[in-house]
What we know:
Layout: E1 5-10, H1 26-41, H2 46-51, E2 55-65, E3 74-83, E4 89-97, E5 102-114, E6 120-121, H3 124-131
Antiparallel strand pairs: 1-3, 2-5, 3-4, 4-5, 5-6
Amino acid sequence: MGKTFELEMSVRDYECDIQGVVNNSVYQNYLEHARHEYLKTKGIDFKEYADKGINLTVTRAELDYKYPLTSGDKFSVTATLEKESKIRFAFFQDIFLLPEKRIVLKAKIIGVALNAKGRPYIPKEFEEILDN
C-alpha cells in the first residue's frame, strides 16, 4: 500500500445546495481532485496519460456520507492506492472537517487503466506505487 496523501481545501459558496450543505455530487469532485494531485506527486499526470492514449477510468464509487460540510469549512481529503485485482486498482479516501479531523466521508474508488486498444491493465508506474 502506498503512503497516505493529504490535500487541504475549503468549501466554496456555490458548492452548497438550498439546505446550506455541500451537495452530495460535489464530494466526488473533491475526491477526484485529490486523486489527481496524489498521482502528480508520484510522477503520473492524468492529462499526459490521456494524451498517450491511456485512460484512467473509474468503474465503481462507494461513498459513505458521515457529516455535512457547509460554506467556508476547511477540510482535508486523503488518498491511498491499493491493488484491487490483476487489472483494477482502488483508492481509499477520507474527507475530514478541519481542524478537529471529524470524519465527513469515507470512499472506495475502483479504477482501471485502458490502453490505446481499450484493454484494461495496470501501468508500470502504478505497479511501482503499489509495491512501495
